[in-house]
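For practice. Any example?
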Amino acid sequence: MHSPIPALALAASLSGVSVTACAAPSQPSRTIFTDVTATHVPTDADLHALDAALLDADGDGDLDVAVAVENGANRLYLNDGAGKLAHASDAFGAITGDNEHVRVADVDGDGHIDVLFIAEDTEQHNLFLGDGKGGFVRVSERLPAMSQANGVAIGDVNGDGLPDIVVGNTTEGKAGVAQPFLWLNDRARPGYFVDATTSHLPAINVQAQGITLADLDGDGDLDMAIASQDPVNRLLINDGSGRFTDATDRLGAQIPTETREVHAFDANGDGRLDLVFFNLTSNNQAWDKDPQTRLLINQGEARFKDDTAARLPAHRFSSWGGTVVDFNEDGHPDLVVSAIDVPGFVPLQVRAWQNDGKGNFTDVTASVIPRTTVGRSWSMVRGDLDGDGKPDLFIGGWQSQARLLLTGSRIDE
């Protein structure tokens, strides 16, 4: 995405008070998450850490963090086992680019996790093979094409046991069609990819910002939901062999949105995967589209109903990302949502929405998220970084300190 232009000073906004009516409620001194950023994350208040992925890069049994950096070199943060992160300099080399997203998988089947970064303006995607000891080798020539891209997902779409890659493209004012790519992992040479876009995807024009692969129709294979910055979001159904058909009509009537991420999860406990879309009003321009997060409930066979008004807290902030996490450990998936006030690009506190088990969500930010967790928050990733068996959150940001929230109540300082 093109970089937003901040209109208000960061220092003035760190009070957490928004210029609209969407400020978080006053908070008690005890929260589910503890913000350990100051002691556990390398300090860089100007970093554009747009996305992150968790992997055991060095084979020591804990989760490290691969960070996609816009207009900089991508980073690897190594974990000491207790969640304290250290920058492993030049793990991915000094190559800079407009890196938007990162995904990890063992693409070559050697038992070590590999890392894929995709870029937008610089149109340079990079694939790194891991050695399991913290080292990586760049093998980007194994990717079939370069493009101006934003969305990406990795998963086995054709059932051969190898992870495949879907890349969502944009045009950003350039002439042409924003056709997503599908790259199948080569069975004869695992870790090399074959372009199956023409044969396996419908010819569509979608300004993709996010992609999720999930079994949405319950037939055992991975379908595809695409978050689009221009109307409308898309749904593609897999026939089991990795060939997709456009089934966007199954999403129902859509209002115009500028969507940045889509996640699949069973919100209401009926055994079917639902979809949540995180939206902007604009990319820090004037107030435009409704940025309300939207929740679509799966009625069966990947046919969805928009139940946003009945199930989600109403808001006017814009959200570049979020995640699904059971933060209160009641067995029901909750939502953590990034929040930025637009226009103005004002940093806000990250939000927490608790699920009642039936897919109805309530804002419980005050009891879940520390009041220090304010920034221009971007995409986030969940996982157990400190080894206590509970999910933690690494939160990216745009020209904003990346943050780490560990699960475990304490009294805030």
Summary: Residues 5-24, 409-413 have pLDDT under 50 and may be disordered. Residues 108 and 188 are 11 Å apart (CA to CA).
